[in-house]
Specification:
The protein is α+β, with helices and mostly antiparallel strands and 420 residues long. The protein is built from 13 helices and 17 strands. The chain has 2 domains: 96 residues, Serine-tRNA synthetase, tRNA binding domain (Helix Hairpins); 304 residues, 2-Layer Sandwich (BirA Bifunctional Protein, domain 2).
Length: 420
Amino acid sequence: MLDLKFILQNPQKVIENNKRRRRDDIDVFLTVRLAEEKKAKQQEVEELRAKINANAALVKQASDTERQGFIQDGQSLKIQIKELESHLVELEQELEQELLLYPNILRDDVKTGSSDVDNEELRKVGQIPEFDFEIKDHVALGESLGLIDSDRAGKVSGSRFTYLKGDLVLLEFALIQYTLTTSLQEKFIPVLPPHIISRGAMASMGYLAHGGEEEVYHLKNDDAVLIGTSEQAIGPMHMNEILKEEELPLRYIGFSPCYRREAGSHGKDVRGILRMHQFDKIEMFSFTTPEQSDQEHLFLLSMEEKLMQGLKLPYRVLRLCSSDIGAPSARTYDIETWMPGQEKYRETHSTSNTTDFQTRRLKIRYKTKEGKNEFAHALNGTAFALGRIMIAILENYQQKDGKVKIPEVLQSWMQKEMIG
């Protein structure tokens, strides 16, 4: 959520930001009008309360003949204030709904663009492998090596679910160990978060507005949802808390299954394990000060690249343009990894600086050295979306004999060099 004071003081900047994000449907001047009406009604309510208090004092001091008149005046004033307070509640609710429409303010270095084709490629790292044999995609490799069984999962759960088996399971746990070992050196705190959170917590993270309702699995009998990434459970950990500045940056690394309905993506990437309703992910999350947040953002990106370079997979780094960034984010970097089976780079990582967009609704503050309470900034970054990175490993490390070489950095945890 944006700071209402910022909107009122900078309406043109907010209008331009919404335009860059292709959100011309948001009426900033309606928000300004509602805020002004709310302020005026609050003043009227305060004035009436003062009159009621003054009238109550007169009732106590009045003679018997005067008292009845003052009592009637007081009853009339109470009816008026009840009507005003009811109108004020309606205004507050309408203003709240308007504020939920606003995306975060983009950082100045974010390029204005109309679609993902306008995203900026910052660098490419690693060599795209060359094969002297006919390669297989991860589906064919997974089936031939007995690692992926989507047909049986379809009988049990429906489409876009799978059974991972054998060495692919061991590969996932090796990736988890590798990630934890690397992140612990940078003072990340490991977290196994709850997979079910309240709708209120999810809404405060900004993932139910802007069409997010359609992506989320809702629990029919509870006011709760399944998480689509562990950041949605880690972010609210400290809601309504005041952190200490000396604790910041406060870094977490969470592992969890992720549940996504993938609404509107029927027929897209349906083969294999690229786009599933359930997948496992390791996610980094930081709380920091506003002054440190851009530096922390580059740090999270550097962690993603460090993990990727350890696997020796070819990738490229993108800075997303204005129309391709999620509403809570002020800036987002993506990493796309080369997938030989598709002959293109595909997204495997994302890291975003959400500034105080989420912490404002969650009421997560920190106490400065001067004793002031300020909103913390929150950032997130993918360590590994495990299904996608295993696709990249299978396809990039496949061998002529149909086996798959295990990246050297993972071999100690798998106690072998080859799958198959």
